[in-house]
Fold this sequence. Notes:
By secondary structure, this protein is α/β, with parallel strands linked by helices. The chain has nine helices and ten strands. The chain has a single domain (30-60, 76-290), classed as P-loop containing nucleotide triphosphate hydrolases (Rossmann fold), CATH 3.40.50.300. Residues 14, 16, 21, 23, 41, 43-49, 278, 280 line the site of adenosine-5'-diphosphate.
Amino acid sequence: MPAHISIDRLTKHYVVGHDRVVALDNVSLSIEPGSMVAVMGPSGSGKSTLMNLLGLLDTPTSGSYRIGDAEVAGLSDAARSRERRERIGFIFQSFNLLPRKSALENVAIPLMYAGVGRTERLERSATLLRQVGLGDRMRHRPTELSGGQQQRVAIARALVNEPALILADEPTGNLDSQTGREVLAMLRQMHAAGRTIVVVTHDRAVAEVAQRIVTLVDGRIVSDELVDNTAGGPAAGHGQDALAAWGSASDERSNVPATGSGQAGDGGPAPDAGSAADASPALDASPALDA
Ligand code: ADP
Ligand code: MG
Protein backbone atom coordinates (compact mmCIF):
# COMPACT_ATOMS: atom_id res chain seq x y z
CA MET A 1 0.00 0.00 0.00
CA PRO A 2 1.20 3.52 -0.73
CA ALA A 3 2.39 5.33 2.38
CA HIS A 4 1.99 8.89 3.44
CA ILE A 5 4.98 10.97 2.36
CA SER A 6 6.07 14.02 4.27
CA ILE A 7 9.03 16.32 4.17
CA ASP A 8 9.61 19.00 6.72
CA ARG A 9 11.93 21.98 6.25
CA LEU A 10 14.04 20.10 3.78
CA THR A 11 17.08 22.06 2.67
CA LYS A 12 19.78 21.18 0.18
CA HIS A 13 22.97 23.18 -0.30
CA TYR A 14 25.54 22.45 -2.96
CA VAL A 15 29.03 23.75 -2.50
CA VAL A 16 30.79 24.61 -5.72
CA GLY A 17 34.26 26.09 -5.23
CA HIS A 18 33.76 28.94 -2.77
CA ASP A 19 30.10 29.31 -3.59
CA ARG A 20 27.17 27.75 -1.88
CA VAL A 21 24.02 27.14 -3.89
CA VAL A 22 20.80 26.83 -1.93
CA ALA A 23 18.99 24.46 -4.28
CA LEU A 24 16.17 23.73 -1.86
CA ASP A 25 15.29 26.13 0.94
CA ASN A 26 13.17 24.85 3.84
CA VAL A 27 10.62 23.00 1.76
CA SER A 28 7.76 21.29 3.58
CA LEU A 29 5.26 19.12 1.80
CA SER A 30 2.80 16.45 2.81
CA ILE A 31 1.64 14.02 0.15
CA GLU A 32 -1.40 11.84 0.70
CA PRO A 33 -1.24 8.18 -0.28
CA GLY A 34 -2.65 7.69 -3.75
CA SER A 35 -2.45 11.34 -4.68
CA MET A 36 -0.73 12.83 -7.68
CA VAL A 37 1.32 15.98 -7.33
CA ALA A 38 2.80 17.95 -10.20
CA VAL A 39 5.91 20.01 -9.50
CA MET A 40 6.44 22.99 -11.78
CA GLY A 41 8.83 25.91 -11.82
CA PRO A 42 11.52 27.52 -13.95
CA SER A 43 14.78 25.81 -14.78
CA GLY A 44 17.09 25.86 -11.79
CA SER A 45 14.27 26.24 -9.26
CA GLY A 46 15.12 23.00 -7.46
CA LYS A 47 12.68 20.53 -9.02
CA SER A 48 15.24 17.82 -9.74
CA THR A 49 16.91 18.40 -6.39
CA LEU A 50 13.57 17.78 -4.73
CA MET A 51 13.07 14.62 -6.80
CA ASN A 52 16.59 13.41 -5.92
CA LEU A 53 15.77 13.80 -2.25
CA LEU A 54 12.32 12.22 -2.50
CA GLY A 55 13.90 9.39 -4.46
CA LEU A 56 16.65 8.86 -1.88
CA LEU A 57 19.26 9.44 -4.56
CA ASP A 58 20.73 12.19 -2.44
CA THR A 59 20.73 13.32 1.19
CA PRO A 60 19.46 16.68 2.43
CA THR A 61 21.64 19.23 4.16
CA SER A 62 18.95 19.46 6.82
CA GLY A 63 15.33 18.62 7.40
CA SER A 64 13.17 15.57 7.75
CA TYR A 65 11.76 13.11 5.22
CA ARG A 66 9.29 10.47 6.28
CA ILE A 67 7.80 7.65 4.26
CA GLY A 68 4.96 6.29 6.35
CA ASP A 69 6.37 6.08 9.86
CA ALA A 70 9.98 5.78 8.79
CA GLU A 71 12.38 8.72 8.94
CA VAL A 72 14.60 8.25 5.90
CA ALA A 73 16.52 11.53 5.64
CA GLY A 74 19.53 10.36 7.62
CA LEU A 75 19.91 6.81 6.35
CA SER A 76 23.21 5.29 5.26
CA ASP A 77 23.85 4.68 1.57
CA ALA A 78 23.04 1.01 1.92
CA ALA A 79 19.81 1.67 3.77
CA ARG A 80 18.80 4.28 1.23
CA SER A 81 19.42 1.82 -1.59
CA ARG A 82 17.21 -0.71 0.12
CA GLU A 83 14.41 1.79 0.74
CA ARG A 84 14.65 2.99 -2.83
CA ARG A 85 14.45 -0.53 -4.16
CA GLU A 86 11.43 -1.41 -2.05
CA ARG A 87 9.45 1.80 -2.10
CA ILE A 88 10.26 3.98 -5.08
CA GLY A 89 9.85 3.73 -8.83
CA PHE A 90 11.59 6.21 -11.14
CA ILE A 91 10.69 7.51 -14.56
CA PHE A 92 13.25 9.82 -16.15
CA GLN A 93 13.15 12.21 -19.06
CA SER A 94 15.91 10.24 -20.75
CA PHE A 95 14.43 6.77 -19.99
CA ASN A 96 17.72 5.44 -18.50
CA LEU A 97 17.40 1.95 -19.88
CA LEU A 98 20.41 -0.36 -20.08
CA PRO A 99 21.30 -0.39 -23.79
CA ARG A 100 22.54 -3.96 -24.01
CA LYS A 101 19.56 -5.46 -22.23
CA SER A 102 16.23 -6.42 -23.72
CA ALA A 103 13.03 -4.67 -22.68
CA LEU A 104 12.20 -7.71 -20.56
CA GLU A 105 15.57 -7.69 -18.81
CA ASN A 106 15.39 -3.95 -18.21
CA VAL A 107 12.03 -4.26 -16.51
CA ALA A 108 13.32 -7.16 -14.41
CA ILE A 109 16.36 -5.31 -13.01
CA PRO A 110 14.70 -3.97 -9.85
CA LEU A 111 13.43 -7.47 -9.11
CA MET A 112 16.92 -8.86 -9.47
CA TYR A 113 18.18 -6.44 -6.83
CA ALA A 114 15.21 -7.35 -4.66
CA GLY A 115 16.30 -10.99 -4.78
CA VAL A 116 13.31 -12.30 -6.71
CA GLY A 117 14.04 -15.57 -8.53
CA ARG A 118 14.52 -15.60 -12.27
CA THR A 119 11.28 -17.29 -13.30
CA GLU A 120 9.10 -15.01 -11.22
CA ARG A 121 11.16 -12.01 -12.32
CA LEU A 122 10.60 -12.69 -15.98
CA GLU A 123 6.94 -13.54 -15.51
CA ARG A 124 6.19 -10.35 -13.62
CA SER A 125 8.15 -8.29 -16.10
CA ALA A 126 6.37 -9.85 -19.05
CA THR A 127 3.00 -9.14 -17.45
CA LEU A 128 3.90 -5.49 -17.03
CA LEU A 129 5.23 -5.18 -20.55
CA ARG A 130 1.93 -6.56 -21.83
CA GLN A 131 0.11 -4.04 -19.66
CA VAL A 132 2.00 -1.17 -21.24
CA GLY A 133 1.23 -2.53 -24.70
CA LEU A 134 4.67 -3.98 -25.44
CA GLY A 135 3.87 -7.67 -25.34
CA ASP A 136 5.31 -8.00 -28.82
CA ARG A 137 8.53 -6.09 -28.08
CA MET A 138 9.93 -7.93 -25.06
CA ARG A 139 13.12 -9.09 -26.75
CA HIS A 140 13.90 -5.72 -28.31
CA ARG A 141 16.77 -3.63 -27.04
CA PRO A 142 16.23 0.05 -26.32
CA THR A 143 17.79 1.11 -29.63
CA GLU A 144 15.24 -1.08 -31.40
CA LEU A 145 12.37 0.80 -29.80
CA SER A 146 10.87 4.24 -30.36
CA GLY A 147 11.19 6.90 -27.66
CA GLY A 148 7.61 6.33 -26.56
CA GLN A 149 8.18 2.59 -26.38
CA GLN A 150 11.36 3.11 -24.37
CA GLN A 151 9.47 5.27 -21.92
CA ARG A 152 6.82 2.56 -21.63
CA VAL A 153 9.56 0.06 -20.78
CA ALA A 154 10.80 2.51 -18.15
CA ILE A 155 7.26 2.83 -16.77
CA ALA A 156 6.98 -0.95 -16.51
CA ARG A 157 10.35 -1.01 -14.73
CA ALA A 158 9.17 1.70 -12.32
CA LEU A 159 6.08 -0.34 -11.43
CA VAL A 160 7.59 -3.80 -11.19
CA ASN A 161 8.50 -3.56 -7.49
CA GLU A 162 5.05 -2.32 -6.53
CA PRO A 163 6.53 0.90 -5.16
CA ALA A 164 4.70 3.16 -2.72
CA LEU A 165 5.87 6.18 -4.65
CA ILE A 166 6.42 6.85 -8.34
CA LEU A 167 8.71 9.76 -9.21
CA ALA A 168 8.72 11.07 -12.75
CA ASP A 169 11.06 13.92 -13.75
CA GLU A 170 9.89 15.42 -17.05
CA PRO A 171 8.61 12.04 -18.31
CA THR A 172 7.29 13.54 -21.54
CA GLY A 173 10.20 15.95 -22.04
CA ASN A 174 11.92 13.90 -24.75
CA LEU A 175 8.78 12.72 -26.52
CA ASP A 176 6.74 14.10 -29.39
CA SER A 177 3.23 15.23 -28.58
CA GLN A 178 1.53 11.96 -29.56
CA THR A 179 3.81 9.72 -27.49
CA GLY A 180 3.76 12.32 -24.74
CA ARG A 181 0.00 11.86 -24.59
CA GLU A 182 0.44 8.09 -24.37
CA VAL A 183 2.77 8.45 -21.42
CA LEU A 184 0.36 10.93 -19.86
CA ALA A 185 -2.43 8.37 -20.23
CA MET A 186 -0.28 5.87 -18.36
CA LEU A 187 0.35 8.29 -15.53
CA ARG A 188 -3.41 8.74 -15.33
CA GLN A 189 -3.88 5.00 -15.14
CA MET A 190 -1.26 4.58 -12.44
CA HIS A 191 -2.90 7.33 -10.47
CA ALA A 192 -6.35 5.82 -10.95
CA ALA A 193 -4.96 2.50 -9.70
CA GLY A 194 -4.04 4.17 -6.42
CA ARG A 195 -0.35 4.90 -6.87
CA THR A 196 1.23 7.96 -5.29
CA ILE A 197 2.86 9.98 -8.04
CA VAL A 198 5.07 13.04 -8.04
CA VAL A 199 5.75 14.37 -11.51
CA VAL A 200 8.00 17.24 -12.53
CA THR A 201 6.79 18.86 -15.69
CA HIS A 202 6.79 22.00 -17.79
CA ASP A 203 3.73 20.71 -19.56
CA ARG A 204 0.44 22.12 -18.35
CA ALA A 205 -1.41 19.09 -19.80
CA VAL A 206 0.63 16.78 -17.58
CA ALA A 207 0.24 19.02 -14.55
CA GLU A 208 -3.52 19.18 -15.00
CA VAL A 209 -3.83 15.43 -14.63
CA ALA A 210 -2.59 15.90 -11.06
CA GLN A 211 -4.80 16.88 -8.18
CA ARG A 212 -2.32 19.37 -7.01
CA ILE A 213 0.31 21.64 -8.53
CA VAL A 214 3.26 22.73 -6.41
CA THR A 215 5.37 25.52 -7.89
CA LEU A 216 8.98 26.07 -6.92
CA VAL A 217 10.97 29.25 -7.45
CA ASP A 218 14.53 29.62 -6.15
CA GLY A 219 14.23 26.49 -4.04
CA ARG A 220 11.03 27.51 -2.30
CA ILE A 221 7.41 26.60 -2.73
CA VAL A 222 5.66 29.71 -4.00
CA SER A 223 2.29 28.11 -4.64
CA ASP A 224 0.50 24.90 -3.83
CA GLU A 225 -2.84 24.70 -5.62
CA LEU A 226 -5.49 22.04 -5.85
CA VAL A 227 -6.74 21.22 -9.32
CA ASP A 228 -10.33 20.31 -9.95
CA ASN A 229 -10.07 17.57 -12.53
CA THR A 230 -13.02 15.48 -11.42
CA ALA A 231 -14.93 16.00 -14.65
CA GLY A 232 -13.43 13.50 -17.03
CA GLY A 233 -10.82 12.83 -14.38
CA PRO A 234 -7.97 10.39 -14.41
CA ALA A 235 -10.08 7.31 -14.90
CA ALA A 236 -12.21 8.67 -17.69
CA GLY A 237 -12.65 6.23 -20.49
CA HIS A 238 -11.05 3.23 -18.78
CA GLY A 239 -12.81 0.18 -17.41
CA GLN A 240 -12.32 -0.87 -13.82
CA ASP A 241 -10.69 -4.16 -14.78
CA ALA A 242 -8.05 -2.41 -16.79
CA LEU A 243 -7.36 -0.03 -13.95
CA ALA A 244 -7.23 -2.78 -11.37
CA ALA A 245 -4.56 -4.52 -13.39
CA TRP A 246 -2.32 -1.50 -12.93
CA GLY A 247 -2.54 -1.91 -9.19
CA SER A 248 -0.59 -5.14 -9.15
CA ALA A 249 2.34 -6.27 -11.18
CA SER A 250 1.62 -9.86 -10.26
CA ASP A 251 -1.89 -9.60 -11.62
CA GLU A 252 -2.06 -11.89 -14.59
CA ARG A 253 -4.75 -10.02 -16.44
CA SER A 254 -3.20 -8.48 -19.47
CA ASN A 255 -6.25 -6.82 -20.90
CA VAL A 256 -5.20 -3.30 -20.15
CA PRO A 257 -5.64 -1.29 -23.28
CA ALA A 258 -2.49 -0.48 -25.12
CA THR A 259 -2.22 3.21 -24.54
CA GLY A 260 -1.79 4.11 -28.15
CA SER A 261 -5.52 4.65 -28.36
CA GLY A 262 -5.06 8.35 -28.93
CA GLN A 263 -6.69 9.37 -25.67
CA ALA A 264 -8.93 11.82 -27.42
CA GLY A 265 -9.84 14.54 -25.01
CA ASP A 266 -6.40 14.92 -23.53
CA GLY A 267 -6.28 17.99 -25.68
CA GLY A 268 -3.61 20.16 -24.19
CA PRO A 269 -0.53 21.60 -25.75
CA ALA A 270 2.26 19.50 -27.12
CA PRO A 271 4.68 18.46 -24.39
CA ASP A 272 7.41 20.96 -23.85
CA ALA A 273 10.54 19.92 -25.62
CA GLY A 274 12.26 20.15 -22.24
CA SER A 275 15.99 20.15 -22.16
CA ALA A 276 18.27 17.20 -21.81
CA ALA A 277 20.88 19.43 -20.22
CA ASP A 278 18.38 20.24 -17.51
CA ALA A 279 18.40 16.71 -16.16
CA SER A 280 20.57 16.54 -13.09
CA PRO A 281 23.46 14.10 -13.02
CA ALA A 282 22.14 12.36 -9.93
CA LEU A 283 18.78 11.67 -11.51
CA ASP A 284 20.38 10.45 -14.66
CA ALA A 285 22.25 7.76 -12.80
CA SER A 286 20.27 4.57 -12.99
CA PRO A 287 19.16 4.01 -9.42
CA ALA A 288 19.04 0.27 -9.97
CA LEU A 289 22.76 0.11 -10.60
CA ASP A 290 24.19 1.31 -7.35
CA ALA A 291 22.33 -1.06 -5.08
P1 ADP B 1 15.55 22.24 -11.81
O1 ADP B 1 15.41 20.75 -11.87
O2 ADP B 1 14.35 22.95 -11.28
O3 ADP B 1 15.97 22.83 -13.12
P2 ADP B 1 17.81 21.69 -10.07
O4 ADP B 1 17.23 21.05 -8.88
O5 ADP B 1 18.48 20.81 -11.06
O6 ADP B 1 16.70 22.61 -10.77
O7 ADP B 1 18.87 22.79 -9.60
C1 ADP B 1 18.60 23.72 -8.56
C2 ADP B 1 19.81 24.58 -8.33
O8 ADP B 1 20.85 23.78 -7.77
C3 ADP B 1 20.39 25.19 -9.59
O9 ADP B 1 20.88 26.45 -9.27
C4 ADP B 1 21.51 24.26 -9.95
O10 ADP B 1 22.50 24.93 -10.65
C5 ADP B 1 21.99 23.78 -8.62
N1 ADP B 1 22.49 22.40 -8.65
C6 ADP B 1 21.79 21.29 -8.98
N2 ADP B 1 22.55 20.19 -8.87
C7 ADP B 1 23.77 20.60 -8.47
C8 ADP B 1 25.00 19.95 -8.18
N3 ADP B 1 25.12 18.62 -8.28
N4 ADP B 1 26.04 20.70 -7.79
C9 ADP B 1 25.93 22.04 -7.69
N5 ADP B 1 24.80 22.73 -7.94
C10 ADP B 1 23.73 22.03 -8.34
MG1 MG C 1 15.46 19.39 -13.47
